[in-house]
Amino acid sequence: MKKILWSLTLFGVILILPVSGVMEFEKMERFPDSNGTNVYQTENDVYSKAKPTMVELTFVKNPYERSAVCLDGSPSGYHFHPGSGSGAKNWIVQFEGGGWCGTIEDCVNMKKTRHGSSKYMEKQIHLTGILSDKAAENPDFYNWNKVKVRSCDGGSLMGDNENKDAKLQFRGKRIWGSIMVDLMENNKFREAKQVLLSGCSTGGLAAILYCDKLKWHFPKARLKCLSDAGLFLDVSYKRFYSTLQYLQCFFAENLINQVNASLFILNAAYDPWQIQESLIPKSADPSGSWSDCRLNIAKCNASQIKFLQGFRTRMVNMISGFTKPSKNGVFINSCFTHCQTENHDTWYSKNSPAVKNKRIAVAVGDWFFERRGAKLIDCAYPCDKTCRNEVSK
Fold first, then answer.
1. Which of helix, strand or coil describes residue 299?
2. Stretch among 244-258, 312-326, 337-351, 361-375 having the lowest mean pLDDT
3. Which terminus of the chain has fewer Cβ atoms in its 10 Å neighbourhood, N or C?
C-alpha cells in the first residue's frame, strides 16, 4: 500500500516525511492568582455544578482561496472565546489531537470523520480543563483568550500537498497560517502580552514543532509552549519505514532539545496510545497474550509490567538532558492515560493526578509564571495512587 509523503518545514529545513497510520467545593481554600486576584475553590468540587461554556466553531476566512482546507476540501476551523479583565491580552492556543493518517486508505477513511472534515465537526464545544473560563477550575488561565484549533488535516498541521486522484488535501501548514492571520487581524492576537501554545497528542507534537516559529512573532511577549501526551518515542516504527533518516525528525524525543523557547513536557510514563499502537500493536501480538494488559494496566502480569517499566525508563532517561535548562518544565506521572490538560478530572479537580502533592495545573502555572520550579518525575507504577488510569475496550 502506498505511503503518503508529508512536506514539512522544520527549523528552516524542508523534509519529506512519511507518517504512520491513523494515530489517533463548603470550606474555602484560597489561591493567589497570577493575575493579582484571589481565587477560591470549595471543598466539594464545583465542576459538576457549573455549566460549561459552549463556544461556536469559526471557519477560516476565504478557505478555498487560501487552500486552508481539511482532508476532504471542506473549510478548516477553530473555536475562539475572548479573554476578560486582567487576561484580555493573554492567550492560550490549543491544538486538538486527532491522529495522523499514513496511507491513502487511512486518509480516505479519516476524511469521513471530524478529524478529516469540518462537515462532521461539532458546531459547539465545551471549554474544560486548561481551556475552562471558570476560576475554580482553572485558576491561572481562566480569563485568558482561548483558541481551540481543530484537527482535520491528518498530519499535525505540517503538510502542504494534495492527492488529486484520491481527492485528498494535506494543507495543515496553510490552515495554521490562515488561523493565525485571522486572529491577528480580527481578534487582536498581535497585541498579546502572554501566550501559551499547547496541544494534546498529535496536537502536542504540533506545539513542539511550531513553538519557536510562533515565538518569532512575539519577541517581547512571554511565550511558552506545552506538549501534552506528545512525547512520542521511536520504539517500533522502524518496521514500517525504510527512510528512517527522515522519520527521526518526526519524533518529539529528537526535537525537544532543539526548541529555544521555554517548553513544558507533560506525559504519562505508560501512555496507552503508545503502548497499544507503537510498543505492542496487535500485529506484534498474534497470540493475544497482551490483549488484556495493553487495554488495562491493572491486568498486566509481572513480566509484562517489567517490560513496561523498561519503556518508562527509556522515557525518563531520554528526557534527562531536557530537564537541565531552567526554562523547561516536566511532569511525568506513572499513569496509564493519554492527554491530561483537556479534562477537568485530570487538570484541576480535587482528586486530579499529582506528583509530590502537586497537581498538573499547579505545576504548569508554577512553570509558566516562574513562581517556582516544575520538574516532576513520578516513581514507577504502581506507586502513584492519584492516577486516573484509562480502561480501553
1. helix
2. 244-258
3. C
Catalytic residue of the set 79, 81, 115, 338:
338
d(CA 100, CA 78): 19
Alpha-carbon span 331 to 174, nearest angstrom: 32
- Residue 182: active-site member: no
Of the candidates 69, 126, 63, which has an alpha carbon nearest to the alpha carbon of residue 94? 126
Task: Identify whether 338 is a catalytic site residue.
Answer: yes
Catalytically annotated residue among 151, 156, 201, 278: 201
pLDDT band with cut points at 50, 70 and 90 for residue 249 = low
Indicate if the alpha-carbon torsion angle 270, 273, 274, 278 is positive or negative.
positive
pLDDT tens-place string over residues 186-244: 999 999 999 999 999 999 999 999 999 999 999 999 999 999 999 988 775 444 433 34
Which residue among the candidates 45, 140, 228, 271 is catalytic per the annotation? Answer: 271
3-state secondary structure of 236: coil
Residue 20 a catalytic site member: no
Helix and strand element counts for the chain (H, E): 8, 18
pTM of this prediction exceeds 0.90? no
